[in-house]
Amino acid sequence: xxxxSQDPRHKITKRGQNVTFRCDPISEHNRLYWYxxxxxxxxxxxxxxxxxxxxxxxxxxxxxxxxxRPKGSFSTLEIQRTEQGDSAxxxxxxxxxxxxxxxxxxxxxxxxxxxx
Amino acid sequence: xxxxxxxxxxxxxxGQEVNITCSHNxxxxxxYITWYQxxxxxxxxxxxQGYKTKVTNEVASLFIPADxxxxxxxxxxVSLSDTAVxxxxxxxxxxxxxxxxxxxxxxP
Lengths: 116, 108
Known about the structure:
The structure holds 2 protein chains of 2 kinds.
Chain A: E1 5-7, E2 10-13, E3 19-24, E4 31-37, E5 44-50, E6 53-56, E7 65-68, E8 75-79, E9 88-95, E10 97-98, E11 101-102, E12 106-107, E13 111-115
Parallel strand pairs in A: 2-13
Antiparallel strand pairs in A: 1-3, 3-8, 4-5, 4-9, 5-6, 7-8, 9-12, 9-13, 10-11
Chain B: E1 9-13, E2 18-23, E3 32-38, E4 45-50, E5 53-56, E6 61-64, E7 70-75, E8 84-91, E9 102-107
Protein backbone atom coordinates (compact mmCIF):
# COMPACT_ATOMS: atom_id res chain seq x y z
CA UNK A 1 0.00 0.00 0.00
CA UNK A 2 1.47 3.32 -1.05
CA UNK A 3 -0.65 5.53 1.17
CA UNK A 4 -3.68 7.70 0.56
CA SER A 5 -4.32 8.26 -3.12
CA GLN A 6 -6.36 11.08 -4.60
CA ASP A 7 -7.54 11.48 -8.16
CA PRO A 8 -7.27 13.70 -10.08
CA ARG A 9 -4.34 15.74 -8.82
CA HIS A 10 -5.53 18.79 -10.72
CA LYS A 11 -8.93 19.79 -12.07
CA ILE A 12 -9.87 22.88 -14.05
CA THR A 13 -13.56 23.39 -14.56
CA LYS A 14 -15.90 26.08 -15.75
CA ARG A 15 -18.18 27.79 -13.29
CA GLY A 16 -21.46 25.96 -12.97
CA GLN A 17 -20.11 22.53 -13.80
CA ASN A 18 -20.16 19.60 -11.39
CA VAL A 19 -16.92 17.96 -10.29
CA THR A 20 -16.19 14.73 -8.45
CA PHE A 21 -12.99 13.79 -6.66
CA ARG A 22 -11.95 10.34 -5.55
CA CYS A 23 -9.97 9.24 -2.51
CA ASP A 24 -8.54 5.79 -1.89
CA PRO A 25 -7.49 5.48 1.76
CA ILE A 26 -4.88 3.16 3.22
CA SER A 27 -6.51 -0.24 2.89
CA GLU A 28 -6.95 -1.17 6.55
CA HIS A 29 -8.08 2.30 7.62
CA ASN A 30 -11.72 2.55 8.60
CA ARG A 31 -11.87 6.31 9.04
CA LEU A 32 -11.75 8.78 6.15
CA TYR A 33 -11.71 12.58 6.25
CA TRP A 34 -12.18 15.32 3.68
CA TYR A 35 -10.65 18.79 4.02
CA UNK A 36 -10.45 21.94 1.96
CA UNK A 37 -7.41 24.18 2.01
CA UNK A 38 -7.08 27.64 0.49
CA UNK A 39 -3.83 29.48 0.02
CA UNK A 40 -2.20 30.53 3.26
CA UNK A 41 -4.75 28.79 5.46
CA UNK A 42 -4.75 25.55 7.40
CA UNK A 43 -6.85 22.62 6.20
CA UNK A 44 -10.55 23.15 6.89
CA UNK A 45 -12.49 20.08 8.01
CA UNK A 46 -15.46 19.16 5.80
CA UNK A 47 -16.69 15.69 6.73
CA UNK A 48 -15.61 12.26 7.88
CA UNK A 49 -16.65 8.62 7.60
CA UNK A 50 -16.32 5.66 9.89
CA UNK A 51 -16.48 2.75 7.46
CA UNK A 52 -19.44 3.62 5.21
CA UNK A 53 -21.21 5.80 7.77
CA UNK A 54 -20.88 9.57 7.40
CA UNK A 55 -20.64 10.63 11.02
CA UNK A 56 -20.20 14.36 10.59
CA UNK A 57 -21.35 16.46 7.68
CA UNK A 58 -22.46 19.70 9.26
CA UNK A 59 -19.17 21.31 8.21
CA UNK A 60 -19.77 20.77 4.51
CA UNK A 61 -19.67 24.26 3.07
CA UNK A 62 -23.08 24.23 1.40
CA UNK A 63 -25.67 21.85 0.02
CA UNK A 64 -23.67 21.85 -3.22
CA UNK A 65 -21.09 19.68 -1.45
CA UNK A 66 -21.69 15.99 -0.83
CA UNK A 67 -19.55 12.99 -0.05
CA UNK A 68 -20.04 9.25 -0.19
CA ARG A 69 -18.20 6.16 0.90
CA PRO A 70 -20.58 3.45 -0.29
CA LYS A 71 -18.57 0.33 0.53
CA GLY A 72 -16.43 1.69 3.30
CA SER A 73 -13.37 1.79 1.10
CA PHE A 74 -12.88 4.62 -1.42
CA SER A 75 -14.77 7.88 -1.10
CA THR A 76 -15.94 10.57 -3.49
CA LEU A 77 -16.49 14.27 -2.90
CA GLU A 78 -18.82 16.02 -5.31
CA ILE A 79 -19.29 19.73 -5.80
CA GLN A 80 -22.30 20.73 -7.83
CA ARG A 81 -22.65 24.00 -9.72
CA THR A 82 -19.11 25.05 -8.95
CA GLU A 83 -18.31 28.65 -8.12
CA GLN A 84 -15.01 30.50 -8.33
CA GLY A 85 -14.84 30.50 -4.55
CA ASP A 86 -14.63 26.71 -4.62
CA SER A 87 -11.12 26.94 -6.05
CA ALA A 88 -8.91 25.29 -3.46
CA UNK A 89 -6.95 22.18 -2.61
CA UNK A 90 -9.17 19.30 -1.48
CA UNK A 91 -7.41 16.89 0.85
CA UNK A 92 -8.36 13.41 1.93
CA UNK A 93 -6.97 11.62 4.97
CA UNK A 94 -7.46 8.23 6.57
CA UNK A 95 -6.80 6.68 9.94
CA UNK A 96 -7.53 3.56 11.94
CA UNK A 97 -10.06 3.94 14.71
CA UNK A 98 -10.63 1.30 17.37
CA UNK A 99 -12.73 2.00 20.42
CA UNK A 100 -11.79 5.45 21.67
CA UNK A 101 -8.34 5.30 20.11
CA UNK A 102 -7.37 6.69 16.75
CA UNK A 103 -4.08 6.37 14.96
CA UNK A 104 -2.56 9.39 13.30
CA UNK A 105 -4.18 10.52 10.07
CA UNK A 106 -2.35 10.05 6.80
CA UNK A 107 -3.06 12.59 4.10
CA UNK A 108 -3.12 12.29 0.35
CA UNK A 109 -1.46 14.73 -2.03
CA UNK A 110 -4.73 16.52 -2.62
CA UNK A 111 -6.76 17.56 -5.63
CA UNK A 112 -6.26 21.15 -6.71
CA UNK A 113 -9.47 22.58 -8.13
CA UNK A 114 -9.50 25.70 -10.25
CA UNK A 115 -12.87 27.12 -11.25
CA UNK A 116 -12.70 29.53 -14.17
CA UNK B 1 -12.87 26.92 14.96
CA UNK B 2 -9.29 25.98 15.81
CA UNK B 3 -8.72 24.99 19.39
CA UNK B 4 -5.03 25.89 19.42
CA UNK B 5 -2.91 29.02 19.18
CA UNK B 6 0.61 29.13 17.77
CA UNK B 7 2.97 31.78 16.32
CA UNK B 8 2.29 32.70 12.73
CA UNK B 9 5.91 32.44 11.65
CA UNK B 10 9.45 31.75 12.84
CA UNK B 11 12.87 32.10 11.30
CA UNK B 12 15.90 29.96 12.05
CA UNK B 13 19.28 29.04 10.61
CA UNK B 14 20.63 25.70 9.52
CA GLY B 15 21.96 23.61 12.37
CA GLN B 16 19.98 25.37 15.08
CA GLU B 17 17.41 23.80 17.35
CA VAL B 18 13.91 25.15 16.77
CA ASN B 19 11.18 25.12 19.39
CA ILE B 20 7.61 25.91 18.38
CA THR B 21 5.13 26.35 21.21
CA CYS B 22 1.40 25.89 20.97
CA SER B 23 -1.35 26.87 23.41
CA HIS B 24 -4.06 24.30 24.13
CA ASN B 25 -6.39 26.37 26.31
CA UNK B 26 -9.45 24.22 25.61
CA UNK B 27 -7.88 20.78 25.62
CA UNK B 28 -10.14 17.97 26.80
CA UNK B 29 -9.13 15.14 29.11
CA UNK B 30 -9.08 12.54 26.37
CA UNK B 31 -7.42 14.74 23.72
CA TYR B 32 -4.00 13.84 22.42
CA ILE B 33 -1.65 16.53 21.13
CA THR B 34 -0.49 16.01 17.58
CA TRP B 35 1.85 17.92 15.30
CA TYR B 36 1.82 17.88 11.52
CA GLN B 37 4.22 19.29 8.92
CA UNK B 38 3.13 20.55 5.53
CA UNK B 39 5.17 21.45 2.46
CA UNK B 40 3.69 23.51 -0.38
CA UNK B 41 1.31 21.58 -2.62
CA UNK B 42 1.41 18.50 -0.39
CA UNK B 43 -0.88 17.12 2.26
CA UNK B 44 0.09 17.44 5.92
CA UNK B 45 2.44 14.79 7.28
CA UNK B 46 2.30 13.44 10.81
CA UNK B 47 5.33 14.31 12.92
CA UNK B 48 4.66 13.32 16.50
CA GLN B 49 1.90 12.77 19.04
CA GLY B 50 1.77 12.73 22.82
CA TYR B 51 -0.51 12.92 25.83
CA LYS B 52 1.79 14.21 28.54
CA THR B 53 5.47 14.64 29.53
CA LYS B 54 7.95 14.03 26.71
CA VAL B 55 7.84 12.03 23.53
CA THR B 56 10.77 11.63 21.15
CA ASN B 57 11.03 10.02 17.75
CA GLU B 58 13.59 10.09 14.96
CA VAL B 59 12.33 13.46 13.73
CA ALA B 60 11.39 15.57 16.75
CA SER B 61 10.63 15.79 20.43
CA LEU B 62 7.36 16.88 21.99
CA PHE B 63 7.22 18.42 25.44
CA ILE B 64 3.89 18.62 27.27
CA PRO B 65 3.70 20.12 30.78
CA ALA B 66 1.59 18.62 33.53
CA ASP B 67 -1.36 20.97 32.97
CA UNK B 68 -1.35 20.14 29.24
CA UNK B 69 -2.27 23.72 28.37
CA UNK B 70 0.68 24.01 26.03
CA UNK B 71 3.05 21.89 24.00
CA UNK B 72 6.44 22.49 22.44
CA UNK B 73 7.67 20.84 19.30
CA UNK B 74 11.46 20.67 19.22
CA UNK B 75 13.31 20.14 15.96
CA UNK B 76 17.01 19.44 16.52
CA UNK B 77 19.56 20.86 14.09
CA VAL B 78 17.18 22.03 11.39
CA SER B 79 18.11 22.00 7.73
CA LEU B 80 16.79 23.95 4.76
CA SER B 81 14.40 21.08 4.02
CA ASP B 82 12.63 21.68 7.33
CA THR B 83 11.18 24.90 5.89
CA ALA B 84 7.45 24.19 6.10
CA VAL B 85 4.26 24.97 7.97
CA UNK B 86 3.85 23.21 11.30
CA UNK B 87 0.40 22.60 12.81
CA UNK B 88 -0.48 21.63 16.36
CA UNK B 89 -3.80 19.93 17.03
CA UNK B 90 -5.63 18.62 20.03
CA UNK B 91 -8.74 16.52 19.65
CA UNK B 92 -9.93 13.04 20.33
CA UNK B 93 -9.70 12.26 16.66
CA UNK B 94 -13.22 12.64 15.39
CA UNK B 95 -12.55 15.97 13.70
CA UNK B 96 -8.94 16.92 13.25
CA UNK B 97 -9.16 20.70 13.47
CA UNK B 98 -6.25 22.65 12.06
CA UNK B 99 -5.41 26.24 12.89
CA UNK B 100 -3.29 28.55 10.81
CA UNK B 101 -0.01 26.84 11.63
CA UNK B 102 3.50 28.22 12.13
CA UNK B 103 5.51 28.97 9.01
CA UNK B 104 9.09 28.02 9.73
CA UNK B 105 11.73 29.48 7.46
CA UNK B 106 15.19 27.94 7.75
CA UNK B 107 17.92 30.11 6.32
CA PRO B 108 21.43 29.04 5.26
